[in-house]
Every structure is written in C-alpha cells, then in structure tokens.
Amino acid sequence: QVQLQESGPGLVEPSGTLSLTCAVSDDSISSNYWWSWVRQPPGKGLEWIAEIYQSGTTNYNPSLKSRVTIALDKSKKHLSLELHSVTAADTALYYCARHIPGAYRGFAYWGQGTLVTVSS
Amino acid sequence: DIVLTQSPGTLSLSPGERATLSCRASQSVSNNYFAWYQQRPGQAPRLLIYGASNRATGIPDRFSGSGSGTDFTLTISRLEPEDFAVYHCQHYGSPPLYTFGQGTKLEIK
Questions:
Q1: What is the mean predicted confidence (pLDDT) over A26-49?
Q2: CA pair distance B92, B34, nearest whole angstrom
Q3: Nearest CA of chain A to the CA of B16: how many Å?
C-alpha cells in the first residue's frame, strides 16, 4: 500500500511562509486520485486545508484560500503545501492524505504528520 | 456551512462491551460522502468507514456504520483494547468542502 511522508521545517516565524512536502512511495501520484492536506492543532480536531487532483484541479478551504497553495509534482512524486502569513493559530500537526478512489470523498491513506510551530 | 456534532464527547466502556458513537449533521447530507476515522494517541487518523456503511480495507467486522440524512452512527460490537482511541466523523459537500466532527474519545472504564 502507498506510504506518505511529510517533511518541512518544524519552526516558522510569525508572518513567514510554511512550506511542506509529502513524499509518495508509489506511482499512484500519476493515477486518478485526489490528494489533500489536513491539519490538527495540538489537542484539537481535524481541519481540511486543500485538495488537488492528478490533473491539477484544486480546491481550497475558504477560510485559508487566500494564503494557501497546493501543488503536485509527478516527476518527483511529491505533494506540496505553502501557507503564507502564518500566525500562532497555524501551529498544528500537518498531514497529507490520498483520497478514497472513485465517487466517495474521504481520506484513505495518511502520512504520519509533521508538527509545525509558529513562533519567534 | 454544515456542522457535524459528535456525541458523547467521551465514552467510558470496558473491553468486550458494545460502543455506539453518534454524529449529527446540521442539515441533511449524502450517505456517499460520509466517513468515520479512528485516531490512536500519537498516530494519524485511519479510515474505518466510508459511504456511511462501507468498511475500509483491513477493518475488522466488529466496526459498522449506519445512518442517513442527519444522523449517523458508528458501532463497535465488542471492544478490543486497541479500540480505545478518538473517533472522528467527516462529510464532503458544502463549504468548506470537507467537514470533521469534534471527535469522541473512547476510553477504558
């Protein structure tokens, strides 16, 4: 089964940009799947950030849309996320996920997550 | 926006007992787009149920999902020690596109 591995700086300064990548272990990144980023503030619930289809079609959480970019690099087999103008409220565990195939919409496979702290 | 409200917030049961977890949507939603996840401490969420009642690959048959409209239920027929975790419901549809409930913590009594 596919393995997902997030990576990125664990600490970002306020007003800076959070940049994360998610390495995909197999060639499913070029297949008909949606891919997402989901975050979880410490001790809190899950929040969906953005999704991208293998064709490049994207959708964003309206609450974050003005600050977020999601991208897919098939040649490198990775998914990326950029979140601009971060504040302490963006401190969270960030997960990448591959969706359930077909008409169902949910998250079948998850990475282990990477903790990002926004602090000076 | 659709809001998913899970109840109870915490459920205390013993191994071998039956667990019933609820998720209520603020308006009627499609079964096809409803899912449940398990999250053990320090781990990523794991997909249990999709399409309201379909078990994901490798999920034991003691887990079952049901419901429609605004009321959905996750049932664990006989609790095993590894089932004590946080459970999240999730829906796809209205903005923000994917919505999660706040979670139910299933703890050992």
A1: 94
A2: 7
A3: 27
| pLDDT value of residue A109 | 97
Chain B contact present for A41, CB below 8 A: no
pLDDT category at B32 given cuts 50, 70, 90 is: confident
Which of B50, B96, B103 is opposite residue A106, by nearest beta carbon?
A: B50
Among B45, B102, B103, select the one facing A110 at the smallest CB separation: B45
Q: How far is CA A111 from the centre of its chain?
A: 10
Interface of B with A in 16-55 (CB under 8 A): 32-33, 35, 37, 43-47, 50-51, 54
Whether residues B97 and A110 touch (CB distance < 8 A) is answered with no
Sign of the CA dihedral A66, A51, A79, B59?
Answer: positive
> Could you give the CA distance from residue B74 to residue B48 in angstroms, rounded to a whole number?
9
- Edge-first strand order for the sheet with A68-73 is A4-7, A18-24, A78-83, A68-73
State the Cα–Cα distance between residues B39 and A105, nearest whole angstrom.
Answer: 19
B73-91 pLDDT tens trace:
999 999 999 999 999 999 9
Nearest-CA residue of chain A relative to B43?
A: A112
How far is it, in rounded angstroms, from Cα A49 to Cα A40?
10
By CB atoms closer than 10 A (0-12, 13-18, 19+), residue A97 is buried
